[in-house]
Amino acid sequence: MLVHAIPTNATYEFGTEVRTGLNRPGQKELPSKYLYDDVGSALFEVISHLPEYGLTRADERLLRRHADEIVDRVAGPVAVAELGSGSGRKTRWLLEAFCRRQRTSYYPVEISRSALAMCERELRDIDAISIVGFEREYLDGLLEVAAYRKTGQRLVVLFLGSTIGNFDRAAGMNFLSEVRHILQPGDSLLLGTDLEKSRTELLRAYDDELGVTAAFNLNLLARINRDLGADFDLARFEHVAKINDQARSVEMHLRSERRQTVAIPGAEAVVEFQEGETIWTESSHKYSAQEVCETANQTGFRCEVQWIDEQWPFAENLLVAE
Ligand code: AVI
Questions:
Q1: Is any atom of ligand 1 closer than 6 Å to the C-beta of 85?
Q2: CB atoms within 10 A of CB 266
Q3: 282 lines ligand 1 (CB under 6 A)
Q4: Candidate of 34, 35, 44 to mutate for ligand 1, largest count of ligand atoms within 8 Å of Cβ
Q5: Fewer Cβ in 10 A, N or C end of the chain?
Q6: 163 alpha carbon to ligand 1 midpoint, in Å?
Q7: Tell me, what's the pLDDT at 1?
Q8: Residue in 288, 297, 204, 284 with CA at minimum distance from that of residue 244
């Protein structure tokens, strides 16, 4: 696979965002994108197999079951761009269906080079596929993919796994508008969204019995220790999942079990924690199926079809750029 990489000073940026987030007055915060280093990505993979967390399996079931129908809805030669390809496992069904019809270009866009490599290993055996990976932020990568498209090719953008749920609602809407601006009328966006469910189900899904989600969350502090030379004592922080009724989201926090001071040399910071104070590390917003279509309409898309899983409320939404 050809990979387009950009040189970044990733550790410097990480340090800056950690310093800003942990010095924020009121609620301390860390960006959820930093949950996904190699260890965090491996833990997320385990989460996707937990009985309490049905999201990824619902996504995969829908894609497997409806791949031919999805492909039939998108006429002509296509280029497929995937924002945040992960391992590429669930994309296989769709790409096989596209490639049965005609030769297909696949452009995964990922900030993690190791995830891009894994995705390539997973998918390269598909007949009639060509893969070019972009090691980029989502919108930067999509802009480049759009510039690569050949005349007459439709662009199909995949944004699966309800990653949109990790943006707040306003940011999610803004993101869809930005994607729409890069697309041409007739292009499509296949958007995976986790749907609203009971508090009990949500709390079980984000605070599983085995403690895998807790490890996934705490790994963020371990990562700051590894990458920025900090001295977080992980035993002094506890994973907490809580529902935010107003935002219709489930939040992950890390609660300091006592008053403590942590030094983070790579972020040029020393941070004080009060007993019980939390760091907010992620929000996962849940949507209603109707709301997804309304948001699509407000951002320049038409909601063509929704497929909803019967076992775990989750929707695959095919949105067409108007
Ligand atoms: C990647 N994202 C959609 C997951 C979610 O459910 O919000 C991340 C996750 N966080 C805890 N468990 C899974």
A1: no
A2: 18
A3: yes
A4: 44
A5: C
A6: 7
A7: 67
A8: 284
How far apart (Å, rounded) are the C-alpha atoms in residues 124 and 115?
14
Structure tokens at 165: 């749920």
**Do 296 and 309 touch, CB atoms closer than 8 A?**
no
How do 104-110 and 78-83 pair as beta strands?
parallel
| Residues constituting the chain | 322
Mean pLDDT of successive 10-residue segments in the chain (322 residues)?
67 96 98 94 95 98 97 94 86 95 94 86 94 94 93 96 97 98 97 98 98 98 98 98 98 98 98 98 98 98 98 98 98
Question: pTM of the prediction?
Answer: 0.96
Predicted confidence at residue 6, as pLDDT, reads 57
Amino acid at 83: L
pLDDT at 165: 98
Residue nearest to atom 9 of ligand 1 (CA): 44
Q: Under 8 Å CB-to-CB from 160, ≥6 apart: which residues?
A: 59, 63, 82, 84, 90, 91, 190, 191, 192, 316
Percent helix, strand, coil in the chain, to 5, is: 40, 30, 30
